[in-house]
Each structure stands twice: as structure tokens, then as C-alpha cells.
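Hey, resending since the last one bounced:
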Amino acid sequence: MRIERITLLRLRIPFSTGFAHAVARRTCSDTLLVVLRTAAGAQGFGEILARDYVTGESNDRIFADSGPALGAELLGRRFDDQAALAAFIEGCLREGRWQPALFGGFELALWHAFALSADLDLAALLGPQRRDAAGKCATIGLDCPAGQLRHRARLAKLGGATAIKLKVGGDCDLERLQALNEALQGNMPIRLDANGSLQLQACIDLLKDCAQLPIASIEQPFAKGDADLAAKLKHLYAQTAVPIVADESLCSIADAEQLLGSGVYQAFNLRIGKHGGLLATAKIRDMARAAGIGLVAGTLVGESGVLNQAAQLLLRHSPALPYVEGLGQNRTLLQMDPVKVETHSTASMPPITLRQRALMDYVSARKELR
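The C-alpha cells again:
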């Protein structure tokens, strides 16, 4: 496989309804598609959905500078087999020259193009396939008031949800939690996600006030840049015994190594879009499992079918993952997904095509690298 051309498409995809958490409110998605063509005509897709408060990246900087720079290094490169491509990706991850959202988008495009050009051994890349059925986790935003939670809970149950994730960090967290649990009749675990917005005592009070509810975990309660983060996390767990999940604090393999050494989190939230791609995510997953750290996984709000399909592959090859939160949300969140994944394909990574109507409506910028 030789890389002949790379196209960066910047898309603004409108949502059917808004979505909010403590750090951001969105009515559309700003995402970058990486379209990588090989000399033989295969077309691989990757996706970059940068979040400044997560990885420190922005799509403005990626589209203008770092994306073309990484693309220029890939143009003309040849990968004769899977081992050569894996070695190249591992070398880039070790060097740490490229930030994770950026590199992950190009990495997905490389694997996808390779899978359409040769036989890709997904078990070698991600591990053996699971034999059990995965669960489902529905996510409810901070903008959903208590009065609407009964309806949202009903939709989640009808969709086969086995867990609910509720965004917190507002003035009515306890009221919303109680309303949600009542709607679920106390029969479903609830994960809380604060996106780094809570203060220590307020978090302790909230968890103690809902101690009788089936709270499975709290995710990223405090900002990752907090100077006293480790001490606060240890105190929170000692006071409440509620497992704490790392999300924004966990973006790279180096982050995983540091967090495993600190012992302040009981679980990791894996997201391909923030870790640097499939290979890096699998490595972080395996590091966590070896250390006895729990695992959940998620999608990024507003991602297209490209990242969504990658998350499905990770779930299919990760028996330790109970679910990937947000899978299937595009059907109700996006007005139209700009890509179509050929789910009927027997290929290890199915072909992806662009929906031309969506492109005409949603492409805000295009950049060709040859």
C-alpha cells in the first residue's frame, strides 16, 4: 500500500437537538474527515474531532497547520504488510510528535485503507473477538431537566440500555438523579459525569445524598489541571467509596502510565478519538486490565460513522468492555451522517462512502495534499 493523495474535509454537521454538559453546549459538530487514497485506488477514512479541554487541540489549528504537516510526511509512504504499518504507528506513538486527536484520525485512515487493500488481521491489532453480547449505555445531557427524564429513561429502556450516564454539574443534580432513578424503578446502574466541573465538598455531598441510589461511578469530577487533583480524588474515594473514572485526564499512553502509577482512579474511559487511534487505545486498555483498573468506553458527541465504526470494532474485540456509550446516538442526534458504512460487507473494516447530499450541505472547507 502506497499513499498517493490525502484530502481533509472540514464538516459542520447540525444536530437534530442540542446537547450540553458542564463544559460545552453544542447544536452542531465541527469535525474533520481524513480521506486517504492509495496508488491502487483504495480510499480509507479517518476522523478528527478535537476537544481543546480534552487533548488541548483545536480543529482550526489542525486544519491549518498540523494536519497538512502530518499528511505531508505520509504522502508517498509505502507499507508492504500489517507489521510494517503497525511498526510505523508504534514509532510515532513513542516519539509523541503528534497530538492524539490529530494522529488518531490519520491512523484510522491508514488502517482503513490497508484493510481495503490487503487482509487485515484485526485480532492481531485489537485482540480476539468477544463471545458474549455487549451491553448498551445511554447518555443524557445536562440540558435535560428533571421533568423530561421519565421520557428519556423510557427511550433508553426501549433501546436496550443496560446502563445510563447522566451529565452533572448543574444546580439540580440531586433532583435530576432522583427523578431518573424513579423512572428507572431503581433497576439500572447510573453513571455520573461531571466533565471536571465539581468542587470537592459539593461532590462529596452529592454522592452522600444519593448513597441509596444505584450509582455505579463518577467520571472526571474535577478539572484535570487542578494542582491538588490526586489528593482530592483520594479523599473523595475515601469518603464515598464510589469508583472514579478518568476521562479528560486520560488522553495518551503516557497519561495512562502516570495515572496507573498514582492509583487515584478506579476505572478508565476509553475513547478512540482522544487516544491516538485504534492501536493506542488497545494498548491503554491492556495496561488498565493488567493493573486491575476497570474499563468503560465511549464515543464523542457529534462524531460521524467513521469514529463510530472504529468504536464498534474496539467493542467487538474487547471482552472486558461492558459497552461503548453513545453507540447508535447518531440516528437521533445528527440531522444526517455524512458517511455511509457498508455494514453488509464481510470485510474486517467495511467500506465507507460519502453521502454527497450531506457533503454539499456540510463541507465548510477542503484541503488536498498530493
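The longest helix spans residues 100-117.

Sorry for the duplicate.
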